[in-house]
Amino acid sequence: MRGLASLALGVAVVLPVALGLAWGAVALLARVGLPLAARQSLRVGRGVLVLVLALPLLVMGARVLSPAGPLFTFERSVARRAEQLPVAVWPKGEQVQAPAPRGASAVSSSVWTVLGLGWCLGAGLVIGRALVGHRRLLRRLEALPRVRGVGRVAVVLGEAGTPAFSAWFPRWGSRPSAWVVIPPALLEDAEALRLTVLHELQHHRQRDTHLALARLVFTGAFFWHPAAHGLSRWLSSLQELACDEVLVSSGRVQALAYARCLLQAALRVPGAPPVPAGATGMSHPTQRRIHMLFQPCPRRVHAVPALLGALALFLLPVAVLAQGVTKGREMSLAEAQALARKSQPPGDLPVVVDAKVVEHLNRLVGTDKGRAFMKRALENLGAHRAALLAGLRAKGLPEGLLAVAVVESAVTNMPETDGRPSLAPGMRGAGVWMFIPETARRFGLEVSEAKDDRLDVELETRAAASLLSELHARYADWRLALAAYNQGEKKVDQALAEGGSRDVSALISGGHLNDYVATVQAGLLIVRNPHLLD
What we know:
Distance between the termini: 23 Å
Helix content: 55-70%
Structural class: mainly alpha
Largest sheet: 5 strands, mixed
Strand content: under 5%
Strand order of the largest sheet: 1-2-4-3-5
């Protein structure tokens, strides 16, 4: 649902830009004496519709294939100028500072879900109502008297006062799928009848009736967007002009006779109702259409591909930035794996990304509670990092074990009675490393009413380093050592025996171990990539 909302908002951002550029380009060419033919303008309009739908989808797909960050130099420069991309992921020997607060935070996951559900519900109701009306139109057409048939096109006599129009319905079998409706008054004028039928059949030839149904769905999906309705009206107008142009330029009709037919249609039904939704036709002819019949028909062979190519180049950065805005903070498995590879310092604690790590990463980055915890942890890490690293380095341990302190206490030196949160399951301890009394005494720390060495950061860090060193020596695997840090050696030994595997991911998914290791790995990814909280 979040991805669907992101895609819809990406289309919504690109749509008005594309429509404005296309209108402006066609008008500019006409202004400088290089007007496009009506058929070429129609191809441009259809191309704009394809670009509006395809570019956000392609950018979303490209993010999956290249998930490590912003896709292009253009977006990277924008993001770096906004201080979202640090030059170094984990500055060697420097403190990791908390990211600067932003004025406007990204939309939370729950809001994205509500937006997606609301859009789906509204679009479904509007599209459903329109399709029901289109189905009713088919039943009305089947009840009208048939004048003649042209292949699978049925020409029927409409009701008095209705304009001429054509419609198409997706059907199988031998039943008519295309319809042409003519006003009863045309039966008195054979020439007007012939020209009207030719015009409506041309709509079917150039697939305007197919596009009319597609526009019905498109405007229903974006019922709230004025640009969607503007694009639909523009395409409808271009279809009429293109039909007129083809009939006259091909020699099948004479311009003067055709202009007289348009004028008579306007005078015959001056207050005619609009063409039904999902159909297209000759209603409401204008002076522009009649004037166009007597103008030369320019044909510029490469104009349409060149114009659409230029529009695609202009719209691509817009689609990329729109996806960047609407994408939010949720990361996929491929994105998290790519991020882990790119931010892995040589010789440091490895991050093994699995589905559980991604779940906890998105929880820490995409929820207000998780972000607040991690921002406080990074701020405290900046204050205690030197003392913590000194204890780890004394035992030759990797710097990535700082993530244990991040998860245990948000690097907060607090007593057991402190109410501030911890991400570690199980018994609550004290200090930065959250030692319980039994483990603290095992490593020589005094825990009594008179004194609690667990609140001495330097002493507790030495004890934590000794414990982690012992656990790694025992299991020869950092993820198993982290599991034992939280759940104890007996629980890990039992999990290894029952699970029949040393793969922590498998042991977690099988319910033999809790999610502590995945939480630490997710926290380490954020420590190495603090811009995830921007």
